[in-house]
Amino acid sequence: MSDSASASTSASGSYQRRDSVSSVVRQKSFRFQRPGSPTTLLFRIPFTLQVVLLLLVPALGLIPPSFYIAQLAKVDVAQRNGELLFSKKHNPLIETLNRFIHYTQRERGATVIFLASAGTQFVDEMIGFRATVDTELQTVRRFMEAHPIADLHLPEKGEKALQSALAQMDQLAAKRQLADTLLLTPAEAARFYSELNNDCITTSQSIVFEIENSQVAQRMNALLWLIAAKDHRGLLRSSGFETILLGGFTTEQQLMAFTEALMSEAVGIQLFKAFATEEHWQLYNASFSQLPAYAHIQTMQEVLTNFNDSTLYTEAVQQLNATAWFWNMTQILDAFLPIGEQMQTEIALFSRNAAGSGVGTW
């Protein structure tokens, strides 16, 4: 997703890197407390503040040392339980959803183009992408069979988003039939896949807000912003293809969709940069600086957005090749995958180290 991303890449200005993300103690840690328990409120306070309070209170002589030592032990167990939960369930769920998103982006692009061309283009590509998505869909379903939603202990927002995503996955076959018979518009198809992907991303984001380990939280935030930016690049691929096919922007809605995808991708890349380590940011730049497809897309994009002369604009757009736009964009989208996979590997390593061995009850 480097188009506007690259424009953003070269943009001046310093972006302060965040070493950690503030969060509340994960919900699971205080679900063990009975309603009305005097320690219920304690587990809703950030971990560092809990330790400070528990150290100060006995100094005032209000409670015996044995009590606050026991509470410190509970806080530590709750934190370690949460780290183990992330390592064994949450991170594998995020990784599974991320791969599913990558391939649904491909299917979305081919489906939109198939519909925009009245079923004359990208038939074979669409069928091939569907087969890959089906493979990833089975992986998601196997994961959910092994880990029912109730056992994942997700935040409320994440649980709702995951339930919505799974419901839409069940609708995928029906949506495909509508597309095959041209009973979907390109916009309707793009919206369906985008809402599905957004629910998957929202599920992952809800988990990130609960992570205590700063190294894991920083990398996971960077990864999810990279995925979000990539998803907007996918929308830009579909919108641009349709625009070239029509010889330029023919409606305000069409222009707005293209512009929104362009700007949203740029925002996503800048937020990725804010959270990414220096190594990951350099990897991102290296992945796209030498990619010929990126330079081709930049040139085509300049043509699409140059409205100075309406006559010259129409002629210039007519010289563009929609198929070339799609495949160059696809190469850019594919370049995101190894970056994300490397980050996911690091996140898994850090989370395992944070969880320790044999600690907790998960």
What descriptive keywords fit this protein?
single chain, 362 residues, mainly alpha, globular, disordered N terminus, disordered C terminus
Number of helices: 15
Strand content: under 5%
Taking the sheet with the most strands, its summary is: none
Distance between the termini: 37 Å
The SS-based structural class is mainly alpha
| Unreliably modeled segments | 1-44, 71-82, 357-362
How much helical structure, as a percent, in the residues? Answer: over 70%
Radius of gyration: 24 Å
The averaged pLDDT comes out at 79
- Based on Cα principal axes, name the global outline: globular
Give the tally of β-strands.
Answer: 0
Give helix and strand order, one letter per element, not per position.
HHHHHHHHHHHHHHH
